[in-house]
Amino acid sequence: MAAEEAKEKQAKTYKPEEVSVDTASIKMMKKAQAEGIETIFDRALVMKPCNIGVEGICCKNCSQGPCRLPLTKKIKEGLEPDTRKGLCGATPETIAARNFARMVAAGAAAHSDHGRGVAETFLAMARKEAHDYTIKDEQKLLEIAPYFEVATTVKEGDEEFPRDIFDIAVEVGEKALGEWGKQQGEIYFAKRAPEATYENWKKLGVVPRGIDREIVEIMHRTHMGVDQDYRNITAQCTRAALGDGWGGSMIATDLQDVMFGTPYPLHGQINLGVLEIDKVNIIVHGHEPLLSEMIVAAAQSQEMLDYAKSKGAHGIILAGMCCTANEILMRHGMPIAGNYLQQELAIITGAVDAMVVDVQCIMENVANVADCYHTKLITTNPRAKIESGNSTIHIEFDEHHAFEIGKQIVKEAVDNFLNRRPEQPILIPSERENMVVGFSQEAIKYHLGGTFRGSYVPLNDNIINGRIRGIGGVVGCNNCRTIHDSAHLIVVKELLKNDVIVLTTGCNAMACGKAGLLTPEAARVFCGPGLAEVCETVGIPPVLHMGSCVDNSRILIAASEVVKAGGLGKSIADLPAAGSAPEWMSEKAISIGHYFVSSGVYTVFGVTLPVTGAPRFQKHLFTELEDLYGGMWDLVEDPYEHAAKMIAHIDKKRKALGIDKARDRVLMDMADRQKLDAA
Ligand code: MSK
Questions:
Q1: How far, in Å, from the CA of 507 to the mean position of ligand 1?
Q2: Is residue 234 included in any domain, yes or no?
Q3: Are 304 and 311 in contact (CB under 8 A)?
Q4: Between the N and C ends of the chain, which has fewer C-beta atoms within 10 Å?
């Protein structure tokens, strides 16, 4: 009996080295196993995903079902006609398209609700009702104001004077907030896309009218018995996803930059080794920087440092997790403890005095893990409370008293420092990597051309002359159905080896940081000769960290800037570029993927994609969308093949542009560039 039990236990135990390539995480998994703490890696072993759900062909949109329409081998091989139907007659295509659309809606809603919160706080700041916030980047405000049709100057007689910056901010805040409830017309930022990209959306009738409207319309269309044409449903996915990328997310990024500063390159550190045993360790986890900015200020205040000292601590470490980490890293150089799959593992160090969470990507089980240690879990957002856990408390964020609340949270953590349990050994892994981060589109421009001649032209020149083969946008989550960080790193390293420069955000950026890819020195080690030469000359890492999930909007703007710099076609679809999310898991990733595809980018996902049970819908996403937008979806699980397909697409675009032959370096003048544009 004992032998059987042992066998059963062994069958239910995972091997840490087989589920992650991150050595710090592996150490923590071993500690968790030794201490009997359950994590997502244990649950993934015993709970397998549902095959029908994985393929996207389970409909539960009414109570007559759920209707499950498995794709048999015979149908797949064309040996039997595909007569599958739900009770109402819904085809697999309708079902999978509706499920996919609801994922787009949820993802777009998450990003956009984040953006709405930022716009509300921005407006309160501009009206001087939220005194802890101010305008840190006036230049950025002056740059975005014209897109909202807000004047930046005022005429007095024949003379023109600059307008009061707070008056501009009030008007920008009102117009920005109005984007959510707009019913007609177009969202303002659609016109930030290259003209050809924008005109194509217009021709296809997919320019979003208002952010909320497009999300609500998805929910209506996917209700039982409404839109039953997968192509028509996909078009609505496009409106909602564009409303995310070029709307809610872009507004979030821009207004955050105005209030907290536009990121410029700075030094940072990453991995669980950033925690320190003799200091108060606070982890801020989630996505929105509105509160975390204030916690940064509070943790650095003399008052809190003195308070920590009074409790016997030698200081305060404030480290980030998931995209909150990216936000405070990019602007303040605060360290990152880890990416999505490390959230439970951070607590298992035994050294985390408080984990402060807001919204998105927070596993409910962090509450249970926190209960096993002295860690206090603090929820802060009225939209995101956690019922589990005895050590969970709620301290609600209010932008009108933001700094005070930040201090209250830091104080809770400091008080809890004294509650560390002597019987529980603390183990902080030594892993911590250096990195250079903070590559906003403005920073890239500056790096390439200097203060007075900031420009994307040097990048374009190096793409045209073949030193840089193309641009890869590699982003997205971790997923416990794959080996933690492994696919991220293989895809990125394959691209670098083939002279493809990588733009990154989210948890991919953190995987790259932990592996040492976010340093200028990485160019010599990981890149092909052309890309290495460019990176070494300019002094940039070959992987440029552009921020959090909402900051994927920065990649859209960077791509638009590349088009505008000339020589690489007229629309985003012409660029030798490809997108990737090798370890995606969240609905936000589906929205991001779809706005990249609709903006003209070939986008490859790893793991699975819930469309494979509906072959005609899959073909629409994977093939037919290219004729409409120039971009299309793909699914490639193997990371080497994944990268190879991205490179093949980049080469296809180089050929179409007539720059497929390796060229000697030539200095392009405007006439040369125009010739290429006309080709
Ligand atoms: S945090 S959405 S796991 S990237 Fe933005 Fe990471 Fe994905 Fe969350």
A1: 6
A2: yes
A3: no
A4: N
Query: For the segment 52-79, what is each residue's pLDDT rounded down to a tens digit?
Result: 999 999 999 999 999 999 999 999 999 9
Ligand 1 binding pocket includes 355 (Cβ within 6 Å) = no
From the CA of 588, give the closest atom in ligand 1.
2
Q: Which residue has the tokens 């209506």?
A: 220
Examine the domain organization and report whether 249 and 342 are in the same domain.
no
**Residue 506 CB less than 6 A away from ligand 1:** yes
User: CB-hemisphere CA count at 13 Å for 11?
Assistant: 8
CB atoms within 10 A of CB 340: 26
The pTM of the full predicted model, rounded to 2 decimals, is 0.95
- Using the Cα atoms of residue 147, residue 148, residue 153 and residue 156 in order, give the sign of their dihedral: positive
List 281's β-bridge partners, or say none: 317
| Farthest-apart Cα atoms in the chain, separation | 96
Decide if 531 contacts 500 (C-beta within 8 A). yes
Q: Whose CA is nearest to atom 8 of ligand 1?
A: 361
The CB of 172 under 6 Å from ligand 1? The reply is: no
Q: Which long-range contacts (CB under 8 A, 24 or more apart) does 386-389 make?
A: 386/357, 386/362, 388/364
Of 260, 287, 303, at which residue does a domain stop?
A: 260
Q: Which helix (H) or strand (E) holds 336?
A: strand 336-338
Query: Do both 521 and 545 map to the same domain?
Result: yes
**CA 183 to chain centroid:** 28
Cα separation, 324 vs 340, whole angstroms:
11
Cα 284 to ligand 1 centre (Å): 14
Q: What is the CATH number of the domain that holds 406?
A: 3.40.50.2030
pLDDT digits (tens, 9 = 90+) for 512-562: 999 999 999 999 999 999 999 999 999 999 999 999 999 999 999 999 999
* Same-domain status, 119 and 225: yes
Q: Could you identify the residue written with the tokens 């994922």?
A: 103
Span from the CA of 549 to the centroid of ligand 1 (angstroms): 6
Question: Distance from the CA of 90 to the center of ligand 1, in angstroms?
Answer: 33
Angle between helices 529-538 and 457-464 in degrees, nearest 10: 160
Residue 8 counted as domain residue: no
Same domain, 555 and 671: yes
- Please state the atom number of ligand 1 nearest to the C-alpha of residue 548: 5
CB-based contact 98:224 (threshold 8 Å): no
User: Which one of 419, 450, 472 terminates a domain?
Assistant: 419
Using the atom order of ligand 1, give the atom closest to the CA of residue 478. Answer: 3
